[in-house]
Design a protein that fits this description.
186 residues; mainly alpha; two-stranded antiparallel ribbon; 3% strand; elongated; binds protoporphyrin IX containing FE; Cytochrome b; Di-haem_cyt_TM; metal-binding; metal ion binding
């Protein structure tokens, strides 16, 4: 029940999905709120510290998620041919936006040559610092991709709810609980 089968999600994919969803929403809200803070605000330094620490955690989780996906079955999307193509394209876009948002966040943070402290536990070094106007360009990319990501994720959540309440299929429930599968037991 840890692994996926061709028609059900296992616990590993389910737990990573919901942890990622929470972190994406939290990071967006925190990032947006950070913009409103002034220099003398006590959260002026603390906000980015949490944002970057969780951002790097999400990046690591997403790499593990993609490796897991690569070595595992992906359940076939349910519904019409249109639904299935939409789900595949939509999920691929979400993964791409996640990666570009996180890499651009890394490039903003390390543009001045300083590494990123992750929960004051260890530091990620600055590897690329030579892109012209790196902080500004990465900052613009970060904002637009983060915005596109949350809009797409909201559409994605609506699609899941439509499957549940209108089509009445198992799309949503199979992302909530792992079920033992008849055709593929593991
Ligand atoms: C920021 C929030 C979210 C992100 C980034 C996200 C991302 C993803 C991704 C990448 C997949 C594809 C998994 C795979 O590789 O097979 C997926 C699947 C899924 N997500 Fe989300 N998700 C988010 C929020 C939500 C919410 C709020 C819901 C429910 C209301 C939801 C319901 C589902 C369901 C049901 C699937 C399985 C789809 C299927 O079986 O075809 N997600 N999600
Ligand atoms: C999916 C994950 C992420 C989301 C949704 C997200 C979202 C946001 C948002 C909405 C902002 C405010 C708007 C802006 O100035 O761009 C922001 C700012 C920022 N983010 Fe992220 N972020 C994510 C991951 C990361 C990561 C991994 C890092 C670095 C390790 C990071 C570093 C930053 C920095 C340094 C800022 C301040 C930028 C500035 O003041 O111009 N973010 N983020």
């Amino acid at each position: 029940m840890l692994k996926n089968t061709t028609n059900s999600y296992g616990w590993i994919a389910i737990v990573i999905h919901w942890l990622s969803a929470l972190m994406v929403i939290g990071l967006f809200a925190l990032g947006y709120w950070m913009l409103t803070l002034g220099y003398y605000d006590s959260w002026y330094r603390l906000g980015p510290w949490w944002h970057k620490s969780f951002g790097i955690t999400l990046l690591a989780l997403t790499v593990i998620r993609l490796l897991w996906k690569f070595f595992n079955a992906t359940p076939k999307p349910l519904g019409t041919h249109f639904d299935q193509v939409g789900a595949r394209v939509g999920h691929a876009l979400i993964y791409a936006l996640l990666l570009v948002t996180m890499v651009s966040g890394y490039l903003i943070s390390t543009a001045d040559g300083r590494g990123i402290s992750v929960f004051d536990w260890f530091e990620i070094p600055a590897l690329i610092t030579s892109i012209p106007q790196q902080e500004d360009i990465a900052g613009a990319v970060h904002w637009y991709t983060a915005l596109a990501l949350v809009i797409l994720a909201a559409g994605h959540a609506l699609a899941a709810l439509k499957h549940h309440f209108v089509n009445k299929d198992s799309t949503l429930t199979r992302m909530l609980v792992a079920k033992r599968n008849q055709s593929n037991n593991d």
